[in-house]
Design a protein that fits this description.
By secondary structure, the chain is of the alpha/beta class. The chain is built from eleven helices and 14 strands.
């Protein structure tokens, strides 16, 4: 498990060591940032791509984007292509945290620094990791669900086992759930990862959990909104949707709609505009030979990676308007389109 040094007074400098790169003017279009992204099949990652691309271009740099859509071999090949094109910095959203270490090795051999975006690449000399506090995200999920169901049978529908974030979410969840299990208040009757984070796989897992427990389920901690969607579909099949609490994460539009409709309890909102813009700024600085600073370090099984972790926000029907909608992440009319307009406070 990965440990985070939370000492706020520490500052870690990442020095520019590539001697072939000189500081460039802010309007120099020779800087090229490569983005190797796991998938664009989910709304979340389409938003990240668009925000990151816009931020890089505003900073006067160029960007090349490659999406592997969940294929490890394809992501490595695409990263090799970006490296061969001579990008100055490579930003990676890894599909597989372990396999993607090969991307870091190949980039470093070409003198290219690597930023691990949102998901941490493990067993590699990653130059910088920028994400949200994913352990806290898991804690927010579990706190929200235990507030609704302080006792009973719990199902955990976790994320992809290949994604380091999924393990961090689980760690955070168990920080809250384990004491209640030990106390005898809750019983985790089903705990399963979700291959590729796909809703169809979460649906199958939840259907299995319901059958195995004869529908005697009191709460579901789902790792993200995609898995929550599969869970809720399974609950609908048993006329149980809206009757038991279900968590989520990523503030997808469909999840926001389910929250105001009453079938999903909460989501974890990650202001990805800040994530994307911060990552873009740091990538361009590194490409221009400037030093950047991180505020903590996260161990990735090989090194303590200089890291920047942003704060996630728990969102339910009560603060939907003050968070997701107020930030312009989703439009109010889109979130509330399936409910009576009087509920859109």
């Amino acid at each position: 498990m990965f440990q985070v040094n939370r000492t706020s007074s520490d500052s870690f400098e990442i020095r520019a060591e590539n001697k072939s790169i000189t500081k460039l003017s802010s309007n120099d279009h020779n800087v090229v940032i490569g983005l190797s992204i796991d998938t664009l099949l989910e709304e979340r990652w389409q938003k990240d791509r668009d925000l990151f691309k816009a931020a890089v271009e505003r900073l006067g740099a160029q960007i090349e984007v490659q999406a592997a859509n969940g294929d490890d071999a394809k992501q490595i090949a695409q990263a090799e292509n970006l490296i061969s094109q001579g990008v100055n910095v490579l930003v990676v959203v890894p599909h597989n945290a372990e396999v993607s270490s090969a991307i870091v090795d190949k980039a470093h051999k070409a003198g290219i620094k690597v930023i691990s975006y949102d998901r941490l690449i493990v067993n590699a000399d990653v130059d910088l990791y920028i994400s949200f506090d994913n352990e806290k995200a898991g804690e927010l999920q579990a706190k929200a669900i235990t507030a609704k169901a302080p006792k009973g049978n719990y199902v955990l529908i976790e994320g992809a086992d290949t994604d380091n974030n999924a393990h961090m979410f689980k760690k955070g969840q168990m920080n809250i759930l384990k004491p209640l299990v030990e106390k005898g208040d809750i019983d985790i009757v089903f705990d399963q990862s979700t291959k590729e984070w796909k809703p169809a796989n979460a649906l199958a897992n939840m259907e299995l959990a319901l059958r195995a427990n004869r529908n005697q389920i009191d709460a579901v901690v789902a790792a993200n909104d995609a898995t929550a969607g599969g869970v809720i579909q399974a609950l609908e099949g048993q006329q149980m949707a809206g009757k038991i609490p279900v968590s989520g994460q990523d503030a997808e539009l469909a999840a926001a709609q389910r929250i105001v409709e009453g079938t999903q309890t909460m989501t974890v909102y990650k202001p990805i505009k800040k994530l994307a813009e911060t990552a873009a700024e740091l990538a361009v600085k590194m490409a221009r030979g400037e030093n950047v600073h991180a505020d903590r370090k996260v161990n990735n099984k090989k090194i303590d990676v200089p890291s920047i972790l942003l704060e996630p926000i728990a969102v339910d029907k009560w603060n939907m308007n003050d968070t997701i909608i107020a930030d312009g992440f989703h439009k109010k009319e889109d979130v509330y389109k399936n409910v009576n307009s009087s509920n859109a406070k």
